[in-house]
Amino acid sequence: MNAAGSPSLKRNAEHPQDAGTAIAKKSKIEDDSSSCKTPIVVLVVGPELVPFDADKNLICGSSRFFEAAFNGRFKESSGLIELEEDDVDVFEHFMQWLHSREIDIAQVSDRKRRFTQLSRLYVFADKYGIVRLKNHVMTMLFDTIKHPERTYRTGEPGSHCIRIETMDYVYYNTVRGSLLRKFIAAI
Question: Do residues 42 and 59 touch, judged by C-beta distance below 8 A?
Fold first, then answer.
């Protein structure tokens, strides 16, 4: 918990190679405000192998993939999973959403970059079957197109807000019939 009483979304400060040991030592964390104990799991993300602590109940409740990974017959059921192919920044946005059901990309002032970041988050959510996050991202993408004055002014009214690289990324990382693909094609 941080000073404001919200869950901390910071990365695990331990070294990735120590993540398994950390889980063995700290399988439960105690909240100072009650005697409730919450199981914690560790997700090691990106090629940099950045470890993140996560509330097991929250992450398993968000996705069948994580439910099966941490509670099923996978070797990861021990409380540690590696997501080496995923982007650390995208995963941080997922963790933020997981705790607050909000996505804060307010620091992104360029509509094209905002669209790119949201597209990458959608692809992540699609990959792991996180339906609520996909829906939230699509709502934000619609808002980016429909109400540019509510998102971030680019100084170019009516400017196209999708980079070619983003279109390529979405095409190569989604399946035919994907809602995000259809949305981009319709713009």
Answer: no
Residue type present at position 53: D
Place of tokens 């000073």: 3
Residue 83 structure tokens: 């997501």
SS3 80: strand
pLDDT tens sequence across 36-69: 577 999 999 999 999 999 999 999 999 999 998 8
Which residues neighbour 156 within 8 Å (Cβ) at sequence distance 6 or greater?
A: none
- Whole-angstrom Cα distance, residue 28 to residue 146? 45
Q: Report which residue type is found at 5.
A: G
Say which DSSP state 7 is in. P
Strand 50-55 to 80-83 pairing = unpaired
* Residue 112 neighbours by CB under 8 Å, 6+ apart: 154, 161, 162, 163, 166
